[in-house]
Sequence to fold (119 residues):
Amino acid sequence: MPKATTQLTTKWLERNGWNVDVVERWVSIPGGMRPGYHRDLYGCIDVVALKVGQMGLLGVQTTSYSHRWDRRSKLLAEDSMRLWVMSGCKLWVVGWRPKGHEDRANPNVYEVTLEDFKK
Fold:
């Protein structure tokens, strides 16, 4: 089952006209010391989405509001994410506030651009 922030992001994107697919997968380890682990697309992307009128594919790293800058740093450290943006795809970090917060329904969206990789 996808994590809560992935579910929230998927529903939010769909409400806003995006066609969404969760690409974060659970990888089981038979007989391992732990049951398995989550694997993101290119190690970073939880959700991909397409929308009529939007050029390219959207890749999204979902997270809690308090970890959004950590996830941004994670994306910027990955060469595959630079290539993602250079190829014309969009890349967002979507951070969700905790349950009960008055602004829970409105995520914080940060678009990672090529300029971010130059800093």
